[in-house]
Amino acid sequence: MIFKTMKGALGAVMTVALMTAGTAALADKKPRGSKPADPQRVIEAYLGNTWNWSRGGSYWGGSGVFQAVWTSEKDNSKSYADGKWYVTSKGTLCYEAVWEWKDKDEPDEVKKNCWRHVVDKEGRLWQRHHEKEEWYKPNPDKITSGNGIKAAYNEHRKAVGG
Question: Is 19 exposed, middle or buried (0-12, 13-18, 19+ CB in 10 A)?
Answer without folding.
Answer: exposed
